[in-house]
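It would be a great kindness if you could assist me with a short task in structural biology. The full record is reproduced below for your convenience:
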Amino acid sequence: MNKQLWAIALFALAIAALTGWSDSGVLLNFVMMALYAALLAQAWNILGGFGGQFSFGHALFFGTGAYIQAIAQMQGGINAWLALPMAVAGSALVGLFVGGLSFRYGLKGSYFALVTLAFAEVFRILALSVPFTGAGVGLMLPLRESLANMQFGSRKGYVFLILALVTLALLVSWWLRNSRFGAWLQAVRDNEDAARAIGVNPFTVKMGAIALSGGFMGAAGAFYVQVFQYIDPGIAYGSVTSVEALVAAIVGGIGTVWGPVLGALVLHVLADLTRNLFGQLPGINMVIYGTVLVLIVMFLPRGIAGLGQSVVDLWKRSGGRHGQ
């Protein structure tokens, strides 16, 4: 447990030192977007990895947080730093609403995944229809660069902000791996009936997980608004964000502390390499990117974080065949 905490601390210090040392806009932008993707994956991993409740519509929570962050500032006159916890709380409440409807009636597996996807689409249609979201035009934050407005003059400020959120998510993941609540959540994931038999309330445990997951996803949405100063229904509730969150978590290793971070880093390095090397050939970079993803999923079923165990299993299987 202490080693894991030291690893989280060293990770945060290393990224902070790199950010403070570097003046390269390209490097800082890469670090910022990789950490942003890691936060998306960590949020999904809390529910999908530790809880075993796969979601195809996590953009629901992302978009809610993004819109609360923008609307609170533009129409409520609320400071961005105060709007951030409101975005987190609002997304967590939406998570409780969806979880209450889904888990109360025992939805799980593909049924739960489709419900989250349906809710994301419903919220997208609502955002297109009501005036306070800007409808199809979206909302654009006014440019007021200052620390007080959470609008930084360089990428460094945003890197430190997203680093703080990712570090907090890592600590929550560490807590889930080592706490009683985390043990309950993983017991519900592995066998809900057995967990109920030993006194665990699956409904309460899953509700806590979806609230945590939704809150971190809402924080990612609020961060997106502050960086790009614009949000519309397609960005907020579109499938791209949901896919990015679950793919990074699966590639890195679901149900692990570091898997989402590793997955986000590998995917961003891979995306940048294929775009830079084959960007002049339309579509080739996406073909290579997709092929590598398929190979990772096929040969690393535990993700990058479980690489060592996957190699051991492969060695045992090959040794068994050789012995026969």
The chain has one domain: 2-240. The first strand starts at residue 139 and ends at 140.
